Amino acid sequence: MKYLPLIWAALTRHKTRTVLTVLTVAAAFVLFGLIGLVNHAMTHAADSVASAHRLITFAQPSRSSGLPVSLEAQIRGVPGVQAVTFNHPFWGVYQNPNNLVGGFAIPKNYFDLFPKYHCPAPGWRKFYDTRTGAVVGAKLAAEYHWKVGEQIPVEASGYVRRDGSDTWTFDVVCIDHAQPRNLQNAIFFHWNYFALSLAQRNVGAGAFFEKIANALNAGEIAAAVDSLTENSDHPTKTESANAMIADKLRQAIDLRLVARALMTAVFFTLLMITGSAVSQSVTDRMPEFAVLKAFGFRRIVLIAIIVTETALLYVFGGILGLAVASIAGAEVLHVFRGFIDPLVGSPGQMQNAGLWLRGIGLMVLFSAVVGMLAAGRVARQRIVDAFAEQ
Length: 390
Prior knowledge:
alpha+beta; 2 domains; 15 helices; 16% strand
């Protein structure tokens, strides 16, 4: 503690250099934190227990093609399938073309398979009792200032009603506060209202979702579901939610490699910049270190002072950077969850503890490397030579 005034004086002598060095360290650790969060999410995206016990059935070869709703009863009869539901995607605009509204037409048992959506009990009852009732995500409701009890008209040019209108009116009966928040951006309404009001006859399901008893039998059950339509004009492809996540993540592998290469380059540059700054600081103070040696300061003490100065630069900058990354990480993971599709399960949650431990480890490592390299010059320098150079 008695050497802290010396360390503080050294750091504040060239304030601009010290501040720029700390900000450089902070920027590097912000990038480290954000990339670390995304890499963790990619690694653990398929770990969700719910997604392991859920299969998804799409039409082939194009997933955008519809499937007959009658297929639900057949899938329900497949051994190992505990429950089946489906949805049909819906897109429209509210008041002007820039106000996009996305959602799903769903049967009554839909939320049984997706319990992440939350409404108070009265809201659920009113939803099931109201033909035009809609469950609206909290983010979507906040964006357009919708309230429970309000009627909202949505224009959907791709879904013409039997009366020739493309305006669909929904009664908001519940504001859904699902977690994570990226699930709060959709509107859910009754399949019967949609199918019976639509001008198009025999509208199909966009996808089927199956809850299975044993995740180990997912492959066999998926094959059995697909066998139901193998000789029809609407063949299907069934896979586990985890497999779908893995397929999407394979598209991001190159991105991960680039991110790691970028992180390596950033930290290498950081070492060069901070090493140069610390080395210059030590060079400027060589006569002062010579004086301290002359007064009997041991080399180990001088080395400890320099390493401590270096560590403070990394600690101040690293903590600042990791704090910013932790705050921004929630939004980054929100975007990532949107990438892998919230319907197939949530990726790993933000692991702040592990991130901070790795970050602190890097601070210690870099402090030791840069500090010891700079301190080595002081340890080797003779008192006479230091004054001669001055």
